[in-house]
Amino acid sequence: MDILKVLPTPAALAALAQNNPGGSTVFFQRTVAADLTVTQPHDKLIFTGAWTRGKFTVNLQETRYGSYTYVTSQIASQDRFFGAKWLTDLTVDYAVTQHVKLSVGASNLFNVYPDKNGIPSAATGVSSAVYGPAPFSIDGAFTTGEFL
Predict the structure, then answer these.
(1) Using one digit for the tens of pLDDT, what is the confidence trace for 30-54?
(2) Which residues have a Cβ under 8 Å from the Cβ of 143 and sit 6 or more positions away?
(3) Measured CA angle at 111 (ends 109, 116), to 5 deg
(4) Is residue 20, in this structure, part of any structural domain at all?
(5) Backbone angles phi, psi at 146, to 5 degrees
(6) Whole-number Å distance between alpha carbons of 123 and 68
(7) 113 located within any domain
(8) What is residue 88's DSSP assignment?
(9) Who's near 118: CB < 8 A, 6+ residues apart?
(10) Count of domains in the chain?
């Protein structure tokens, strides 16, 4: 997506700034434009395969999240770039009976994290969010088991 033109704040609204000291009448700021153009990955690919042999079924899914840029303020030096990542999900099912199934699975099997590129605090210079925002969970691998 590209933004070709942004209209200035209408005069009637800009005049209201006199009654709001320290306020802003800029409604379409840099961060809003970034949300529409660069904050989400430009691509997401999903490949899925399922194999069945007897009572076993194996489901494998690969998901690729494309790169993106996170814009946090009016200061371009605080923008953060995050590279593309591949995540692997795997589930193994065993049909005990026609109506009972055991499942064991893992989301993000190889424990992939976003790039370590959080925004440092102005006061301490240390980032409270090491990984920054991501289009996938920053919790890493997750395993589960079910008895259905």
Answers:
(1) 777 787 788 888 899 999 999 999 9
(2) 104, 105, 106, 107
(3) 155
(4) no
(5) -140, 150
(6) 27
(7) yes
(8) E
(9) 80, 127, 128, 129, 130, 131, 132
(10) 1
